[in-house]
Amino acid sequence: AYWDSKRCGRRMPARRDLDPIEIPRLLPWVILIDVILDPLDFRYRLIGTEVVAIARRDFTGARFSALEGKGPESTVWDNCLTVVRTCAPFSRRPPYVGPRDDVHSGQNLLMPLSSDGETVDMIFQLIAYQHR
Length: 132
Prior knowledge:
alpha+beta; 29% strand
């Protein structure tokens, strides 16, 4: 609903339309991902504190192609690619793969952002982890 309210009649909102002050309770679960074109890649711009705590690692600034298990043909890459190709939100509940035994899965919601209203140049992601 937040993402949709920021579209203002456009296909998708821009990063500048998002205001962290409006969603303080969600911030620990937010991930912002830069879309890099030619060649295609993705880069973690911002990772919320709870996501970092569960991953036990901060990938901020890292390109997916440089991270084991996040490059082309991985679930993470394919999720982002789906958003870039469709210019539409995408949700998936992949199994959790990480260092925490108490986490079972995560519900991901990926929403496209566009500076020009046509090309996805950033992805606004929310994740909710399911604990055992």
